[in-house]
Amino acid sequence: MYEIDTNISAESRLADVTIEYPNVMNALDYFEIPLGLGDMTIAETAAKYGIASSTLEVAIAVYCGETPSKILVESEIPDLLRFLKASHYSFKLDKIPELKRLIALFSEQIPQEQGKVLVAFFDEYVAEVYKHFRYEDETVFPYINGILNDRTPGDFRIKDFEDNHTDIEQKLIDLKRILVKYIPPSAVSPHRKQILLKLITLEQDLTYHTNIEENILVPFVKSLEGDF
Questions:
Q1: Sorting pLDDT into bands at 50, 70 and 90, what band is 3?
Q2: What is the model's pTM?
Q3: Domain extent listing, the chain
């Protein structure tokens, strides 16, 4: 059915997994699964919320730091695409705007020129991320849906996405370096630490997002393209 290198299984109790690996809470948000999990297993949770069990299992495994190899069942992919789209909405409507707000506040507490550089650097990063998400939402995901519905794929192939899959995490690393190394101590403020903690969380989330695309979605689509 699918191969996965992980200790997480369909019979793992999701609450226990979430307590041990708090990053799983982000994955639950993207599947619209609320906390209050009780003693439900991953399989039971998937059934309750109408999600393919193996899709939920593989996403949870990724957010536990594992690297699944591939999924081979077509019926699982729509849930995975919805998951990825939901993560885009979360980044654009919640995580990135909150970081932007904190950076704007912090920029007012440091020398003006440094504040301008910090804001401009983050704005450039946001533009790059939004371009990345737009390409996936408008080109890659519709292409995959077309293949799943037996429509001729045209000239685009998933390798085009693979070859142009930009590293949107690198600028976050650079931004952390600026905050930790180059901006001198300012007036007492919690904002620098708050920004860094949120950047770390965002970086982890984007890494998991990329892991799912590169190690699950792309190999699966390549296997489908052989039928055309």
A1: very low
A2: 0.88
A3: 2-68, 74-225
